[in-house]
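Lecture 7 notes: from sequence to structure.

We start with a single chain of 192 residues. Read the sequence below before looking at the structure.
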Amino acid sequence: VSVFIARRVNRLLKKRITPLNLFWATLDNVGAIIGGSFVLRLLDDTPDPWMPGSLDIYVPEQGDGVHRLLAFFRYATMFSYWTTTTFCPVPRPLAISHPRWYEELVVAGYHESTSEDKLVVRVFLVRTEEPLDAIPFTWSTANVNFLTSDALVCAYPRSTLRQRGFVTPAHWRRVGHRVLLDYTARGYRIRD
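Now the structure, written as tokens:
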């Protein structure tokens, strides 16, 4: 099983990143993980060949990991131009009533690059030392998954492997219509 998954991971990554050995070494060295629709695609065994919308990488904001990861992308891949989005920190007492994704508690912002053939890479800056802290704050249970160089983890395997995802009522109002259409087109049923 692990050989099958490793081949599948590398097949999807080769469309965005080369050299893969250097990518995995850099990811390990900076303590980063991969999340989002890229990991969901690895778990989706349907014959539909949908491509992940982006490669989402989560890395601790502190230290030089972010700079080392971006340097890898700038010098070793087709992703050379990056834009930056930052989130204002939300004071903890306001977090309970705050209607957003709550990423402001864990994610400080992200760097994004789009290649000429429209492939997207996002590097999320996690406020804590553990990038895994950001994964549970995603908009749906279908995306509470992550990948490292030696592990693929799915938090809700029963529903995810059956192409189902759940959204909390607080998140439901702000999930974009386009996102729901993308997931529905891939065969997923998203509900609250």
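The chain has eight helices and nine strands. Keep this in mind for problem set 3.
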